[in-house]
Amino acid sequence: MRTVYLNGQYVAEDAGQVSIFDRGLLFSDAVYEVVSVLGGRIIDETAHMARLERSLAGMTIAYDVAAADWPGILATLIEANALEEGTIYLQVSRGAADRDFLFPAPGTPPTVFAFTQARKLVDNPMAERGMRILTRPDRRWGRRDIKTVQLLYASMMKMEAKAAGVDDVWLVEGDVITEGTSQNACIITPQGHLVTRDLGHHILPGVTRLSLIDIARASGITVEERPFTIAEAQGAAEAFVTSASLFVMPVVEIDGLSVGDGRPGMETMALRKAYIDQACAHP
Ligand code: PDD
């Protein structure tokens, strides 16, 4: 049984309980992060903590990330659960108060918890075969740059992909791709440029996306942060997604059409390797 963190305590996973009045539960009034762990060490911890602060500020949830000693909490969870490879989920909600659309009085303590999930991240069989993707309208709210727990639409789209026998969905506005249900979307053009959607309210500023842009630029690849259409992605040389749990994952099919030769792209796999190497070298 796992040891989890809840409001300052380390408890067995089945002892971790939150109020039925928690605003995370009633209003999705909570933000979260998912960090990955390789060799018992967290990847991109500073960037994830910076985004947590940004999400909290976006939601005006009063919670001091720096004062909470997240490096200590995460290290304790890794040790208590002997986590070598996997992810840690952490969530901060506005706290519990009798149900009311209006926010509770200042001083209501936020509800804070975190738990580990052991899983293979590097040896993911999907990296060998590549992902098959459907596109669907992006019907999420307009502040996708804030990492809230409002994930119902993403969850429904993943179920739709599963029912159709494919791996995931890329969300689109008109014919322009915003991002994956839980990843950022990227393509490599026939000229060899890496294209990914520019930042704004329409997508989550992915931590992996940012690291990968640096890696790509350092290896001489031209990076274009701009909108791209379904047709451009289908006609691209390669396509992939980035996320904390998938790292860099090739996409080989979009709406039934093969991308490139229908196999994981060479540039994509080189970027995946470079990302993993860097994560192992500088957690
Ligand atoms: N999802 N876009 C969305 C909508 C996401 O939910 C995520 C992450 C990303 C990639 O961000 P990052 O590289 O920082 O993980 C992009 C996490 C993994 C999840 O919800 O499980």
Give me a quick take on this structure.
With 283 residues, the protein is an alpha+beta fold.
Based on the coordinates given, report the CATH architecture of the largest domain: Alpha-Beta Barrel
Outline type:
globular
User: Structural class of the secondary elements?
Assistant: alpha+beta
**Percent helix among the residues?**
25-40%
Q: pLDDT average, as an integer?
A: 97
When the domains are counted, the total is: 2
What is the straight-line distance between the termini? Answer: 27 Å
N to C succession of SSEs: EEHEEHHEEHEHEEEEHEHEEEH
Major beta sheet summary:
9 strands, mixed
Number of strands: 15
| CATH classification, class level of the largest domain | Alpha Beta
Write the CATH fold name of the largest domain.
D-amino Acid Aminotransferase, Chain A, domain 2
User: What is the CATH H-level superfamily of the largest domain?
Assistant: D-amino Acid Aminotransferase, subunit A, domain 2
Q: What percentage of amino acids are in beta strands?
A: 25-35%
List the uncertain runs.
none
Could you tell me the radius of gyration in angstroms?
Answer: 19 Å
**Ligand set:** N-(5'-phosphopyridoxyl)-D-alanine
Number of helices: 8
